[in-house]
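Bumping with the actual sequence this time:
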Amino acid sequence: MGKRKMARSHIERMLQDVWDICRVTADPDGDYPFRNGTAMGFVQLDTGSPATVRVWAIAVGQTPKSAKLMYELNDVNVRSRTAWATWSNGRVIVEQAIPLHSTTRKSLGQALRAVGSIASDIGPMIAAVYGGETPFEPDEAEFAEGSA
């Protein structure tokens, strides 16, 4: 088995454990999609040098770039300990990279939670203030829980 196949098998097994499912399926790009609230996320294996596992999520799309938005994203990055938010081609992306050789179930689970929750937390606010759309609509239940 080649290094790439072994790495992919390793990532898939960890995702099965973290997500508590029997099987994970890659999308046509070879990424493993996931949803967290309003955000659409992906786990991506990069076998370049150094090999990394990139966990990233789209917080909001179709957002125009502005100095105020960049200031907002900088503020998010200052507060976040492990993930970072960037603007690229109209999308606000939250991501975290883990060296493949040190990726464990614990580190992968932490990256999934951090990236997904930050993207889902900032997406609706950025869409409302700066324009754009979140990949998924906020659940009405989320608002009901937050207002109780």
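The tokens above came from a reply further down the thread. Strands lie at 32-36, 39-46, 52-60, 84-88, 91-99.
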